[in-house]
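Please decode residue identities from the backbone states below.
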């Protein structure tokens, strides 16, 4: 039997337990009241935010703002990326709901965002057309992007040459919505720059009814493929990697190890993947959002649980060890004998025949831009019938034609194309021998330009620009157009005729090219030339020879000497000096308004030669001014001699405006 003292202690413990229960119950009641207050606070904040101007914008306006932000926030190659426009979707619950219900915001898919975000964005796109960019990513990411192939509107596919064959099955299905296609088989080493990837037939299931733009880099589509159809307006085919040395030029090959070497050109490691920054709502956003839009799988993001151990959000851990991608990486091993996985080396036999190319172009009558880089039929590789030589393909809508190949192949193709006289024509020709610069090929090239210019003159739309510049060790680029829009940043449809000569050295093969370029200029003798640009032309001609050429260019209004060209500049000074104050003597370059001499080479004459030349030039220009032919602008290099004469130049009738520019 318990003593009275023990009973008292037991009663005290019971009373204490009852008191604790009461306290806990009271705490729970307070918590419930706080939850009610929080709900009211969220509701009041939502009502308050609903009165803010940006939260009352129409749905269409908010969607357009987000669309513009998304379009401006582009992917930067080889960098981690956070999509800044995603933050704008967290302004408030209203903006967030608009974003999630605007599928077009999520239709621009980039493989560098990783597998998880690729799948999430595909869900958000609903059934809208997709713009897909695939570059050097693991197999699972590529597979996820290509599964909805029937919805792809624009596809850019850039991958390693040795990895692309395993994805060719994705490109064999019909593409009913495809409008733009870019395929590039890339590789980082010179050794493999001339390897080409033949694409299997049927390509795109022989069905791409909306295709308008085609760009193929180091891949070969069957030349008779139906994708080359009347809907195509842009076609560029390049069978050589533009980042590598030109075909036929010396190559500096990398030093490979003697043992087997895994050579892939990319890594499957997702740690270098640009990541999407769609961070969970921060504290302020949570305060602004009602409880119903609390972050969760149904409403928001993959990002709530995408924080990886390395601290990078959005990277896909499951891609880091992609077995199929890793196996593919190891499929090519560098050794004494290596597999090329069905790739073929560039050679004339891989080019289309003349009839195949003309048939392909005939199926694309709406072409506006055509560019063929090392994809022109080789004249020496096939026997061409007389009927094939006589055949012409009409491309009446063409505005730009760019050809790159041997001079013989370019000259054989151009006459077969019936293009508008206003079209921009660029020929990047390669000569097999330096002697060809002064042989039959260059004469045929000049005749081609003469015929084109005569046609333009007949149409009363003279050629307005002609540019010549060297390319590679045995190449020459010729650009001619009746509409100058992209050179010298002048913009618009310039009415100037520009003859541009560019040369970087004065000896060796450059000398032959200089003579060839001079041959073109002297034979054309274009009377419509208004703007003459001489760049680093050096000693290719004597001052007397330059003077003879300048006398034929009676319509020149501007002369620009951009780098050292003493022979030309002396010829210019001689011509100007030959005119006296006698009004009966014809003016030399009578329409000259702008003279710009940026830099001269006085390596032999030193400073004294500099001073004498400029004094002589200013004297002859002053004589010209006295005959009422004062220049509008005189642009001279900043030098001690010219600086000391600035005050005199302002008083003498030489030019309305004198500008001194540092060299």
């Amino acid at each position: 039997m318990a003593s009275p003292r023990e009973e008292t202690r037991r009663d005290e413990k019971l009373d204490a337990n009852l008191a604790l229960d009461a306290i806990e119950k009271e705490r729970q009641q307070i918590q419930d009241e706080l939850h009610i207050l929080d709900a009211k606070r969220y509701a009041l904040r939502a009502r308050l935010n609903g009165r803010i101007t940006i939260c009352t914008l129409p749905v269409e306006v908010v969607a357009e703002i987000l669309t513009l932000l998304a379009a401006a926030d582009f992917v930067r190659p080889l960098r981690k990326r956070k999509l800044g426009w995603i933050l704008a979707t967290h302004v408030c619950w209203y903006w967030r709901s608009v974003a999630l219900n605007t599928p077009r915001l999520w239709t621009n898919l980039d493989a560098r965002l990783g597998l998880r975000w690729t799948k999430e964005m595909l869900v958000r796109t609903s059934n809208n057309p997709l713009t897909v960019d695939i570059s050097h990513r693991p197999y699972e990411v590529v597979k996820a992007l290509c599964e909805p192939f029937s919805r792809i509107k624009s596809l850019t596919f850039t991958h390693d040459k040795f990895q692309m064959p395993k994805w060719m099955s994705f490109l064999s299905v019909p593409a009913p919505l495809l409008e733009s296609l870019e395929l590039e088989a890339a590789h980082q080493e010179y050794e493999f720059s001339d390897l080409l990837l033949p694409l299997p037939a049927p390509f795109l299931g022989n069905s791409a009814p909306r295709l308008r733009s085609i760009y193929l880099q180091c891949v070969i589509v069957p030349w008779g493929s139906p994708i080359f159809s009347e809907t195509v307006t842009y076609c560029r085919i390049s069978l050589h990697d533009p980042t590598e040395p030109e075909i036929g030029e010396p190559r500096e090959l990398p030093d490979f190890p003697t043992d087997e070497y895994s050579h892939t050109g990319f890594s499957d490691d997702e740690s270098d993947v640009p990541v999407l920054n769609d961070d969970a709502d921060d504290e302020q956003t949570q305060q602004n959002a009602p409880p119903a839009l609390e972050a969760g799988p149904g409403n928001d993001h993959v990002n709530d649980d995408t924080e990886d151990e390395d601290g990078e959000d959005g990277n896909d851990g499951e891609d880091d060890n992609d077995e199929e991608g890793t196996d593919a990486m190891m499929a090519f091993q560098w050794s004494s004998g290596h597999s090329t996985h069905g790739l073929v080396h560039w050679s004339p036999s891989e080019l289309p025949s003349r009839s195949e190319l003309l048939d392909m172009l005939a199926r694309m009558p709406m072409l506006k831009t055509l560019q063929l880089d090392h994809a022109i039929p080789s004249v020496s590789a096939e026997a061409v019938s007389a009927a094939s030589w006589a055949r012409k393909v009409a491309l009446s809508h063409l505005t730009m034609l760019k050809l790159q190949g041997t001079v013989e192949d370019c000259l054989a193709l151009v006459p077969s194309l019936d293009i508008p006289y206003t079209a921009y024509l660029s020929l990047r020709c390669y000569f097999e021998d330096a002697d060809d610069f002064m042989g039959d090929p260059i004469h045929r090239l000049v005749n081609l330009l003469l015929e084109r210019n005569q046609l333009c003159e007949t149409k009363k739309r003279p050629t307005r620009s002609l540019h010549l510049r060297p390319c590679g060790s045995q190449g020459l680029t010729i650009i001619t157009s009746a509409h100058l829009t992209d050179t010298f940043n002048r913009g618009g449809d310039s009415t100037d005729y520009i003859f541009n000569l560019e040369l970087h050295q004065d000896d060796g093969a450059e000398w032959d090219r200089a003579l060839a370029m001079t041959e073109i200029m002297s034979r054309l003798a274009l009377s419509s030339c208004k703007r003459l640009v001489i760049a680093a032309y050096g000693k290719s001609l004597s001052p007397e020879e330059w003077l003879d050429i300048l006398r034929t260019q009676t319509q020149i209004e501007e002369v620009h000497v951009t780098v050292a060209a003493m022979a030309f500049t002396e010829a210019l000074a001689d011509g100007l000096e030959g005119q006296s104050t006698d009004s009966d003597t014809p003016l030399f370059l009578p329409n000259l308004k702008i003279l710009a001499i940026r830099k001269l080479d006085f390596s032999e004459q030193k400073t004294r030669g500099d001073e004498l030349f400029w004094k002589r030039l200013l004297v002859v220009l002053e004589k010209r001014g006295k005959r009422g032919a004062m220049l509008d602008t005189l642009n001279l290099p900043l030098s001690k001699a010219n600086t000391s004469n600035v005050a005199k130049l302002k008083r003498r009738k030489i030019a309305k405006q004198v500008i001194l520019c540092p060299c």
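Observation: Confidence is low (pLDDT under 50) at residues 243-341, 483-498, 500-509, 602-608.
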